[in-house]
Model the fold of this input.
Amino acid sequence: MIDEKYTKKIVIRWTSSFLLVCSLILAGNNMSALSLIAYTVGLFGWFVAAMMDDDRALMVFTTAFFVSVANDMIKVILQ
Done:
């Protein structure tokens, strides 16, 4: 039987992946502010999933991407 923790991880991962794909679509349509928000939420979801699995490599990976996205968010806000 599938336990509840496994189901939560799957939902978090698929929802986060969907948001990351949506952010790429938004970026392609010149909606940079919404794209950055969707990307940030998607990255946060993957970070949570990595914490649930105790996957340090994925935590470092998502943190590095978050720093990059935060830099872009500051650029958008200052424009």
